[in-house]
Please model this.
Amino acid sequence: MAQIALPSIDYMVILQILIIFGSATALLLIDLFIPANQKKITALLALGATIGALVAGPYSNSGVTMANAVAFGSSTLIVNSIILFATAISILFASDAMHKQGIERGETYVLMLLATGGMLLLAQGASLITLFLGLELLSIALYILTAIAYPRIASEEAGLKYLIIGAFGAGFLVFGIALTFGATGSLVLSEIATRIPVTGIERSLFFTGIGLMLVGFGYKVSLVPFHMWTPDVYQGAPTSITSFMAVGSKVAGFIAIIALVQMLGAEAQVITPVLMGIAVLTMLVGSIVAINQTSLKRMLAYSSISHAGFVLLGVLGSTQATGLRAPIFYLAAYTLTNLAAFGVIMVLEGSEERDLTLADLTGLWTRNPWLTGIMALALLSLAGVPPTVGFLGKFLVISAVWQSGYMWMAIIAAFASAFAAFFYVRALLSMFSGTTDRPRMTLDARSSLALLIVAVGIIAVGLMPWSINAIALAGS
Amino acid sequence: MVSTLMYVALSAFLFVIGVLGVTLRKSALMVFMSVELMLNAANLTLVAFANQWKSVDAQIMVFFVITIAAAEVAVGLALLVMIFRRKNTTDIDLMNTLRG
Model:
């Protein structure tokens, strides 16, 4: 066997990952010296690290390093920025909500940073090893975060459920990687792309492997029929963690799926029909089942399933000429909108542990008009009403799918979003109608700041799409 | 010399046993063990193919998989112990606090 040569490392390519993992490790140590009632200092430090990594993005080098395992490019820069933005907002949310509920622990922020590092690794992964490691780093941190409200049985059960399903998905992923390696003899995506077997048993091994890997990632981004865990876990986890998990793991998971589909190149047409079917099923199941839900978090969980279908459709629609503009923009829109929606629910929960239902929204207008406004914005964006960012995301995906020749898919997508709009409008109306004897509510500075940022984002990006559009075009 | 495909067939068999174990078993401990079986089936495939291609990449992958599996089970067992203290059961069908 040949001697193992140590690969050279360009540290500027992995700059953001280094900052996040480095500060997570340091923070774990620093946190020991921070008294239990002062954990907001830990939050502040974690926030600083996240913003530092966000700022470091443009200074990173483009290229591939560490024996072709990690890459950085202009589209990675956008995705990393989305992930780090979501983390920063989630840290603000968590530090407010967990303090109110008396479950604030220093580890929370360390784990959030570790999960973020996993997401960045997944986004920058150029080899199947990196993709696997990124996915697992992000998952294991999220299992613990889901259960972090641990005197609460719902949170513990959600954590265990998430872990079992996650580990099951990981099993499929690893077996898929093994078969893909067997068929091509390489774990590096760019090498696999040149070695896709054209005939024989290798070809069937290869596509079985790809299929199993997509199952593994499908669990992570909750595509139907791998979505059963989503409502339970979203409901059981503390809300500030739910928003982080809903946004971050979905963005990162889809980037991995995009990387796989891109790796296949022209051969992607072999799996396109199956993925199209899954996308349609995901959109429809997510939209239709959401109508029946009364729990707000479960409703948003099903809505996130339906959005996953849209992103997948965008990925498939854009394998040809249009580039990755549609799915990446959709993910950005999804991030802003869900952070706003979960943020409002989190603020409404306050110090209560109860799961909020649709009835809790009744008469919200009389309790706090600002909060109502932000929730209304989030719901309109989820439903895809202009001038919000959600509308543009849907528009881009549907037009990309239409242009790539899947007319009927575009029509189904339009119908699915009309179905989903039904629920959002119901929630919207109940906020403005009716009265409630509950007292007015006041907002904490951290949550207000975070909600303000995402609300401005929903409108601003919705009105000025060219900003993100231009970047995404450059990156495709 | 046993051909590589025999190893793949064996590991596919083990993988299916693992999948069935996860879906059919009720005890969370047995589910963890079945997940381990799935991961180790994949490891066997990786090692067999690494031998065929004379490549160390897949062998390195195996080390990562073993490490990750250990980390995952550590978290899983910790969660299970906490839940067991409260509910006195490891039956995952009884963990039904969350229902829509």
Q: What stands out?
A: Residues 57-87 of chain B form the longest helix (31 residues).
